[in-house]
Specification:
Blueprint: E1 6-8, H1 15-24, H2 31-41, H3 49-59, H4 65-77, E2 81-85, E3 91-95, E4 102-106, E5 112-115, H5 120-131, E6 141-144, H6 147-151
Parallel strand pairs: 4-6
Antiparallel strand pairs: 1-5, 2-3, 4-5
Helix pairs in contact: 1-2, 2-4, 3-4
């Protein structure tokens, strides 16, 4: 697709970025939310809530499963993380920019790339025109192997 660019996820790249975004949104900056922000920031690529729970048990046993799920719901509502549906039917999360974009996710290592919407909006408009469907939202998730996994001989 012409005009589509990809970039490695960069923001919010740190726990401080997440905390600052929560503060800008007027959310309370509780210690549990800060701890979950640290857990999310420590992840590279997509992650599941269960992985965050396991991380919390190792690093901060006081952070419970419900706290992690509530924080993820809040982070998702603020577009600080986005829920992605994986090919196997499970879902995961990726930290991302709060601008509309899509994800290319490596099925080998879990690395996530943000994919700009350029070019896709025209296709979406065409689908709407041809079908008579008024498109109000869309989401695209691309799965495959990143260059590093291809070089390493990974498989889908």
């Amino acid at each position: 697709m012409t005009g589509v660019t990809t970039r490695t996820r960069t923001a919010p790249a740190s726990a401080n970025g997440l905390i600052e975004a929560l503060d800008r949104a007027g959310c309370r900056l509780t210690e549990p939310r800060r701890a979950v922000a640290d857990l999310v920031a420590a992840r590279d690529g997509h992650f599941t809530a269960a992985e965050l729970v396991a991380d919390a048990r190792r690093t901060d046993p006081g952070i419970g499963r419900a706290t992690i799920f509530r924080a993820l719901d809040l982070f998702t509502s603020l577009s600080l993380v986005e829920r992605v549906d994986l090919p196997d039917g499970d879902h995961a999360y990726v930290a991302c920019d709060a601008v509309h974009h899509h994800h290319a996710i490596c099925t080998g290592c879990g690395r996530s790339l943000d994919v700009d919407d350029r070019g896709l909006s025209g296709i979406i408009a065409t689908v709407g025109r041809r079908s008579g469907f008024r498109v109000t939202a869309h989401r695209l998730e691309i799965f495959g192997l990143c260059a590093a996994c291809q070089t390493a001989g990974g498989s889908l």
